[in-house]
Amino acid sequence: MSSIPAPVAPAIDLGSLDADQQELILETIHFNRFIASKTPHAPCSCPSAAPALVLEVGPPQEPGARRRIECGLCHRFYYWLPKIKNANKRPPGSTGLARGAFCQCCLKAGTALVGHHVVPVADGGSDAQDNIWTVCGACHAIIHALRRMVEQA
Question: Is 64 left (phi over 0), alpha (psi -120 to 50) or beta?
């Protein structure tokens, strides 16, 4: 007796899809991975007792905002779906400001580098080279954490 193979989703060439279709596929994958990471779910008051989780999209004026995950039958709230975090999708604005081949703080080379404004643009700083440090992502995060500590003190 032979077994029937499970259906396999066809491979999709994302390059052949338009931007809206690509966005929909990425959001669907993000939703499914998030839900899978949260199982098992608490039972709800529906007759089936197993929630039929759906995504309730937020206001259209806030694209990508956190969205509500609820049971599609009884509308019980379960989770907030966080925004998609994808470095390739939306690179930081300071990426093009990095000028060196290594981090000026830790001297690490061969990693993604960003330009850090010594004097923030919001405080009157410029994109001039003497106001930009070339740093790796980890050092950039540390610099901003230290800056927040100094500002709070």
Answer: left
Say if residue 21 is in the same domain as residue 66.
yes
Asked if residue 64 and residue 116 are part of one domain, the reply reads: no
Q: Which two tokens stand for residue 71?
A: 């049971």
| Pairing status of strand 132-136 against strand 77-81 | unpaired
Return the SS3 of 28: helix
Mean pLDDT per 10-residue interval, the chain, length 153 residues = 51 70 79 82 77 75 69 84 60 58 83 85 82 88 88 80
Q: Domain containing 132: what range?
A: 95-152
pTM score over 0.70:
no
